[in-house]
Amino acid sequence: MTTPPFDFAQAEYPLAPLTLYKVGGPARWALLPPTREAACDAYAWMVDQPGPKMVLGGGSNLLISDEGFPGIVLVTTALDQMESLGDHRYRVECGVQLDRLVQEIMLQHNYEGVGGLTGIPGSIGGAIYMNAGTVNGSTCQWLESVDVIGPEGRRTVTVEPSMYGYRGQTFCPPRSLILGGVFRFTPAEQDQRPIYDHYIRRRKEKQPQGNCCGSVFRNPEGDHAGRLIEACGLKGVRRGGAVISPMHANFIMNDSDARFDDIVGLITLCKATVKERFGIDLREEVVIVSESAPRT
Ligand SMILES: Cc1cc2nc3c(=O)[nH]c(=O)nc-3n(C[C@H](O)[C@H](O)[C@H](O)COP(=O)(O)OP(=O)(O)OC[C@H]3O[C@@H](n4cnc5c(N)ncnc54)[C@H](O)[C@@H]3O)c2cc1C
């Protein structure tokens, strides 16, 4: 791999501090573009390089190997511009924190949708890529269009409901880059502030606080991964510095310098035990980045 021709490239860049799990080794190269144009140049260069590549947003849904990432990581944190386009529409760059969108735009203008997006960590890019949300709604439902750059170039996609679903979408394949999107909101009749306060409080009461990725597994159709894991008696089970939360079985916490293998060991245990007891295959929601390529 050649040395990246950018002053925002960093060699052997530590990734653990960029994730909420606080686990993982360094990237061979990290590209930290300061603007959207720089991100397009970086992406266009990166896509032609041999070896693995990935995009990192807020790092709230990533589990990275202790070996690190032997390729190029494009980090979106600095792409954090938001602008009003009028008529309840906003252009939002991928590195903006989702919580900033909720607080500075949705709450400020009392838009609908606060209940679905409150308290979810991470960036707009990650929230769009994962279609992050809750039973009350998800990110892509407020998205009018999205700017994506992939190996074939840059395009703006008009977003339709058929293009997204539970924790996923079809307009951005793995390793393409969501540069940002245009959101269109609807003024709400009901005051959204108490809804926000309610869901913040609820998360504090029901979810463990600490280093984690939120829900490790997707909920299987008609059931809850946490319920299944709990029914298998796995709450509180520990491997090294990682533990299946005694508070919420779908959360695996790094509570004392966990290693990648500790967390993966508990993921494997949950999958095997739930399969044996209920015949259900749990699927990871967390994106595991190991060896040469992310598993998505
Ligand atoms: C305490 C806690 C609670 C959580 N609660 C919820 C919840 O209620 N609902 C929910 O849906 N999720 C939840 N999550 C998971 C996580 O916050 C979301 O998945 C979040 O949207 C991920 O965004 P991110 O920017 O952190 O993405 P990252 O973790 O950085 O990346 C996740 C994936 O998105 C890709 N990606 C990131 N940015 C881009 C981009 N610009 N272009 C292309 N691909 C990109 C990455 O390559 C990776 O595959 C929770 C996590 C935590 C720690």
CATH class wording of the largest domain: Alpha Beta
CATH architecture of the largest domain: 2-Layer Sandwich
Largest sheet: 5 strands, antiparallel
> What letter string, H or E per element, gives the SSE order?
EEHEEEEEHHHEEEEEEEHHEEEHEE
Whole-number mean pLDDT: 96
Rg over alpha carbons: 19 Å
Find the CATH topology of the largest domain.
Answer: Uridine Diphospho-n-acetylenolpyruvylglucosamine Reductase, domain 3
The SS-based structural class is alpha+beta
What small-molecule ligands were found? flavin-adenine dinucleotide
Summarize the structure.
This protein is of the alpha+beta class.
Q: What does this protein look like?
A:
- This protein has helices at residues 36-47, 98-107, 114-117, 124-130, 193-206, 225-231, 260-278; strands at 9-14, 26-31, 53-56, 62-64, 69-75, 82-86, 89-93, 133-134, 137-138, 143-150, 153-158, 164-165, 168-169, 177-184, 238-239, 242-244, 252-254, 287-290, 293-295.
- By secondary structure, the protein is an alpha+beta fold.
- The protein has 3 domains: 9-75, Uridine Diphospho-n-acetylenolpyruvylglucosamine Reductase, domain 2 (2-Layer Sandwich), CATH 3.30.43.10; 82-184, 2-Layer Sandwich (Uridine Diphospho-n-acetylenolpyruvylglucosamine Reductase, domain 3), CATH 3.30.465; 209-295, Uridine Diphospho-n-acetylenolpyruvylglucosamine Reductase, domain 1.
- Strand 12 (164-165) and strand 13 form a beta hairpin.
- The longest helix has 19 residues, at 260-278.
- The site of flavin-adenine dinucleotide (FAD) has 34 residues, from strand 3, helix 4, strand 8 and strand 14.
